[in-house]
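Key result, reporting period 2: structure in, sequence out.
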């Protein structure tokens, strides 16, 4: 009798459990949650997430920009390595943020999804080109880096990627750019999620070959014969032909340039460096007034004081390199304090430093200057000489100012005067 009771109780419990489980899985699935994601959105996120140099790193190293105040941001002013900033390119390109993974993760995942898919051939090859750009920047900055194993944690549980030799990486980048650029086909899929060119295949092909040209010129002092071969292949493929081909991020009032936002909020700590300003002044460069400005006091985010900014070239003075806020008063020709900052030139927040300023990655001007060097070495044929490419590059760089603001137009006569 006792056993019968136990069996009955067990049967009742099983029935209850079975009833409770009925539809449980379906009930706990969010019907509004996406189960798939178009890989094109991974591509646009990778474009948006591409690292842009902060003012505390590359621009300070090349003496265009300076922060004289003591602390971690002053490191590069004194040839001091600071891991907070030297790691910035690495962290943003590999890891990204909690909200947006780095471009390497996104592009490796994307490529794994669309490889061999004939309907997504242009997306596949454009992603290869942009992945090559990411690793070119990483190798140029750090040397040997994770490459073949990079981004494989989720796909293949590779949590400790090996470091590949930089020469091996560059060899593969040449192959990737060569084959990906050649494979682009305007009759195939158009990647409308592309934020650079809106899916324009012809422009992506020019970008691919322009990057190949840049890589080729990297070899010029290491292996001139290889450099010449790569450059000639890039030139034959077809590089950028005007500023319309520039690869850059566009910003607006809602999605602002993060670098400009940072320097605008901390304007009293950032100045243009003396070597940069002196070069522009001494050469009569008409771009100076768009780069540089003097303010009654160092300004924060755009205010009414921008309207009375002094952009006269003769009035611009860059801050001396190698001085801190403590030693700056001892610098020859010290120009004194200015409110909470100093009486030196800052970024022109109406143009170059505006919140909607673009972020350039690869440009026609750069490409023409690379061609000028290649022509000087005798690697190019077809009529144009080094002087022509050089002039084209300088003029393109000046015309590029209009991308910051439509009013920043430099007359052709001023460009020719500068060149002469």
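The corresponding designed sequence is given below.
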């Amino acid at each position: 009798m006792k056993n019968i009771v136990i069996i009955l109780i067990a049967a009742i419990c099983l029935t209850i459990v079975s009833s409770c489980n009925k539809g449980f899985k379906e009930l706990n699935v969010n019907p509004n949650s996406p189960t798939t994601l178009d890989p094109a959105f991974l591509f646009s996120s990778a474009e948006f997430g591409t690292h842009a140099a902060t003012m505390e790193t590359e621009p300070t190293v090349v003496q265009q920009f300076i922060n004289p105040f003591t602390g971690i941001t002053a490191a590069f002013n004194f040839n001091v390595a600071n891991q907070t900033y030297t790691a910035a390119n690495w962290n943003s390109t590999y890891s990204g943020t909690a909200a947006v993974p780095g471009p390497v993760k996104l592009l490796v995942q994307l490529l794994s999804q669309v490889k061999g898919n004939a309907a997504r051939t242009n997306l596949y090859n454009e992603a290869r080109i942009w992945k090559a750009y990411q690793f070119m920047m990483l190798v140029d900055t750090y040397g040997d880096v994770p490459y073949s194993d990079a981004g494989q944690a989720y796909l293949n549980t590779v949590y400790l990627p090996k470091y590949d030799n930089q020469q091996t990486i560059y060899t593969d980048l040449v192959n990737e750019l060569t084959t990906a650029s050649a494979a682009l086909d305007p009759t195939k899929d158009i990647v409308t999620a592309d934020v650079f060119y809106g899916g324009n295949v012809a422009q992506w092909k020019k970008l691919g070959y322009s990057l190949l040209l840049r890589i080729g010129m990297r070899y010029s002092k290491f292996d001139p014969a290889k450099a010449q071969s790569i450059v000639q292949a890039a030139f034959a493929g077809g590089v950028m032909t005007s500023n319309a081909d520039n690869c850059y991020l566009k910003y607006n009032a809602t999605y602002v340039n993060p670098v400009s936002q940072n320097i605008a909020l901390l304007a009293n700590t950032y100045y243009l460096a003396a070597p940069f300003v002196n070069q522009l002044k001494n050469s009569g460069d008409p771009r100076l007034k768009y780069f540089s400005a003097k303010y009654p006091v160092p300004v924060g985010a755009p205010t009414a004081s921008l309207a009375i900014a002094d952009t006269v070239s003769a009035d611009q003075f860059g801050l001396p390199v190698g001085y801190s806020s403590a030693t700056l008063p001892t610098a020859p020709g010290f120009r004194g304090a200015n409110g909470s900052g100093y009486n030196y030139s800052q970024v022109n927040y109406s143009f170059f430093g505006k919140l909607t300023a673009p972020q350039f990655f690869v440009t026609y001007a750069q490409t023409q200057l690379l061609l000028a060097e290649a022509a000087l070495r005798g690697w190019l044929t077809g009529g144009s000489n080094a002087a022509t490419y050089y002039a084209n590059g300088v003029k393109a760089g000046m015309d590029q100012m209009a991308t910051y603001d439509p009013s920043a137009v430099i007359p052709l006569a001023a460009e020719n005067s500068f060149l002469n």
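Strands lie at 65-66, 145-146, 163-164, 247-249, 271-272, 292-293, 337-338, 341-342, 346-347, 359-362. The mean pLDDT is 89. This case is discussed further under Risks and Mitigation.
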